[in-house]
Amino acid sequence: MNLFYRSTRSKSELVKASQAILRGLAEDGGLYVPEYVPTLDKSLEELSQMSYQETAYEVMKLFLTDFTEDELKSCINKAYDSKFDTEVIAPLVEADGAYYLELFHGATIAFKDMALSILPHLLITSAKKNHVKNEIVILTATSGDTGKAALAGFADVEGTRIIVFYPKNGVSPIQEKQMVTQKGKNTFVVGITGNFDDAQTGVKKLFGDKELVKVMDTAGFQFSSANSINIGRLIPQVVYYVYAYGQLLKENKIEKGEKINIVVPTGNFGNILAAYFAKNMGVPIAKLICASNENKVLYDFFETGVYDRNRDFVLTSSPSMDILISSNLERLIYLSTGCDPDKNAAFMKSLSREGKYQITPDMKDNMTDFCGNFASEQETADTIKALYEKTGYVIDTHTAVAAAVLNKYRSATNDHTKVVVASTASPFKFTRSVMNAIDHKYDAMGDFELVDTLSKLANVKVPNAIEEIRTAPVLHDTVCEKEDMKSIVMKFLEIEE
Questions:
Q1: What is the set of active-site residues?
Q2: Distance CA 226, CA 223 (A)
Q3: What is the reported pTM?
């Protein structure tokens, strides 16, 4: 039976999964959502005996119903292969009363690899299925990790080009080095003089520019997205929550049917939304704990029902969460209205015009699965240090935000339900912040000296992704004003304005 997708903003036509993946964003500016969240058709006991790749097929076949079994398995096997440095793809590590789901064993050592390893294959398959003749231009904004993971996924993939915009002074030195040294004749990386929200807003404007779309079509191009707004990114993220539960079951860490809590460090809301989908598929999840850094727009939202981006933007040590417009939250807003696109569109219009909106009490009641808190910069650093000193386990700054929020949640509620923490990046991606948290004496070291010291300290081999950029030349040095993003895109595609 086919599962179709619709826009969050209008009663527009239903589209197949492959069409939603190709388009990225609906024509009315809305995000694609499935008509319903399908229920797992294999028991959790059966799933617990499966590999990551097998679990991925069982989850994704239910969402991507216009893909054949061969097509989907081919995409999965090409994605989850030797580019991951561990055979299990997403290992669980127990430390200090929590299970850390390590989502950073892919090519760019961040959780974005989990979805961006498969998205190029889903996209190319979707293009063939829909007889697309144009070259696909992946246009994306990044707060640090999506950019490199997308670049690595799409580099030299035939029939595609990729353009990544990032905030010039808003990512870690390692994150920037990973992006600006990216090889591939179809890749283009641009720093903008603004923050992530400026980059994301600029990309959305380009998607919505009807004249530009026409000009590109004439020149043989069409846009698609690798941001977490693409359902081809969201669906693969559901897999690892299903897999994590299965592994806890397999290792007898939980009883059959036992509920777990999940804590996710959250910026754009896609990763925690995927956990919500997993819950709705039948995974026994109690609370979804949304962890924010000092840009605590989501914490305030879950507390008050008011989403308000009119506030100071804070640059933190967890830059992938330095976001004031959480794009994927729109999907939850839509679902909480009872799937009313008109109501959702009104909220989004208010966000665009006034920078805020307030949901109804009924909608807030529909979000009781979620709760939130935030961690200050000091709390984040203290959590890294305390966990290392207690267990020897080293986590990155984003994961530390989640761990700090978990500690606060447990203190406030006395809820000691077993918990999975989404560990979203390797500590090697944020070495300076991590090492500084452990001891300020490391601050005098250079970036790669810190890498080697962290390796000894944590007793973990330096990941390939870091070794590769030690001496890699800078290949991308373009910087532009946020107002000039359109002309930069035209220039890269060699289209006359």
A1: 112
A2: 10
A3: 0.92
